[in-house]
Amino acid sequence: MSKKFRHYREGIRKSFIIYAIIPVVIITLASYLLSFSSLYRTIVSRNYKYNIQIADTIGNIIGTYQNEADYLSKDGGMQEYLELNFSNSKLYGSFYDFVNKLDTKANFFVFDDKLKPLIQSSNHIPEYAQGEAAFMWGPIRRMLDMPDKAIIARQPAFTADSPSLTVGKAIVKKGRVAGYITFDFNKRDLVNLISKNFSTSVVITDKFGYVIACTNELLVNELGKIDMNFRDKSGVVESKDDSQYVTRTEILDAEISIYTLTSIGYFRSMLILTGVLLSFLFGMLTLTTYLSARKIADSKTRVIDDIISSIEHVQKGNLETQLKVNTNDEFQVFAEAYNQMLGDIKNLIEANKEKARQNVLSEIKQLESQFNPHFLFNTLETIRYMVKMNPSSANTMIVVLSNLLRYSINNTITEVSLEEDVEYTKNYLFIQKYRFGNKFDYGIHVDEAALDCIVPKLIVQPIIENAIMHGFANRQSLTVQIKATISEETLVVIINDDGEGMEPKVLQKIKHILDGNINNSSHIGLYNVHRRVQLIYGEKYGVDLSSEHHGGTVVKITLPVSKGGSERAEGGHR
């Protein structure tokens, strides 16, 4: 044994000195490359997402104004206003209401067919609506050429407050253009709208490359167009001063292009600097590893010797061996976990013994409780009379009893969905309803979310049987209500009845039985349900009981929320 451990120490020394550095170098280089690759992908992803965000924002805003212009151009009130040329405050107010409810405001104008302003939000008449030349170029010309479409036109913005984009629609009446509706966006508002990310430049252009708005004037050439290096480009674009990653998106039927540009030139500098730093760190790592290898190997293998010795004791069946390690490192954590594990194993062994015994006892008592000879005799007698009096109903009763027996005696199933257990309980309630007639009634209210929760088999029916057995005492009728809800990751099943209830002494006695681990009384159903729940899910779950003499009984079963539809465990809890 000692030779073996000396050989292991030598292996650790060699691993530290020869092999530890190589994986570290490989992992570090891989991490280095992955980090830069990840950073690059992050920049690309953010650039793309920001581009889509800006495109959606601009597209939604312009689209909203296009829709409004189209709607107003077809509005009967607008056409009547142009025809009669009388003041219409309601129409004027509708423009203000529409513009004011939007975050991005635009100046609006309504012109007649001679470009006389009829409605306006600004005293400054835009240049595109002045003079006879207006009918030859610009937005007016485009509206004349496309009277059925809401047009978009760029305007040369000489100042920050000058209009840089116009949305317009011709007002067509009886086949001719009777007027024009326009909305003007100034350059400042559009720049503010796209100036949300200081690391990414944004340029908005028309389909000819003319800049409508941008956050970096260096990207605009002397003709007012986006720099030719970037026009219609996507991906990495090299320029004379820097490298940019460019994402380009066309919106509004390719009338508008959105460019987002992120500088990636600093990547090269970071790559070189990080490479130099890593080379220095590798040199220091090699020296440190060499000096530390012998000391670490000797000190750590002594702890390993103690761990192996303790494990050998456990292999021989001795669960009382404890590790005492005070190294203030991972080995101490391992030792504490080992000691805790031994304690948990011993507790688990005892719990498994108790669970196995209780499962067998619970199964036997459940069968005795659910289908005692008295219950079967009464049911069969009922069926016998029904065969003579009502054969159709007798057939239904036989099917229900068959389903009831098949479900109950299936010993391979220990857990089912709440929906299955409730369906089984309905069969039982159907028989009892037929036996007692109008004297017995019931209601079932199970939340949809609770139906596929996993519960122990036969968890509801024993409680109802108790209610019927004891609730009818001195009573002419009985009603049982079954409810199931999910509350804070806990499944709560409540069965309450309006029966005779319990005297305080009886209630106290049953609660005492539920709190204990042994039941020598005749109160089998409640105890078995409670005990099975605790053995499967822990002591924080189980049955809670409340009752008033002559005032009914409420049984509350709490279970953890465990989803899984109709998943079942064979032979025990999963």
Describe the protein's architecture and organization.
The chain has 14 helices and 17 strands. Helix 9 runs antiparallel to helix 10 (391-409) and helix 10 packs across helix 11 (418-436). The two termini are 41 Å apart. It has 574 residues and is an alpha+beta fold. It has helices at 2-19, 21-73, 76-84, 89-100, 138-145, 187-194, 266-315, 330-370, 373-389, 391-409, 418-436, 461-471, 504-515, 524-537, and strands at 107-112, 117-120, 151-154, 163-173, 176-186, 200-206, 211-214, 235-238, 243-251, 256-263, 415-417, 440-446, 454-456, 478-487, 490-497, 542-547, 553-560.
Quick summary:
Helices cover 51% and strands 20% of the residues.
Tell me the strand order in the biggest sheet. Answer: 2-1-5-4-3
Helix content bin: 40-55%
Q: What would you call the structural class?
A: alpha+beta
**Gap between N and C termini, in Å?**
41 Å
Identify the overall geometry.
Answer: flat
Strand content: 15-25%
Quantity of strands, as a count: 17
Low-confidence stretches: 1-5, 367-371, 565-574
Q: What can be said about the biggest beta sheet?
A: 5 strands, antiparallel
What is the CA-based Rg, rounded? 41 Å
The overall pLDDT average reads 82
DSSP helical segment count: 14
Protein name: Sensor histidine kinase YesM
GO molecular function, one term: kinase activity
Main location: membrane
Transmembrane segments: 16-40, 270-293
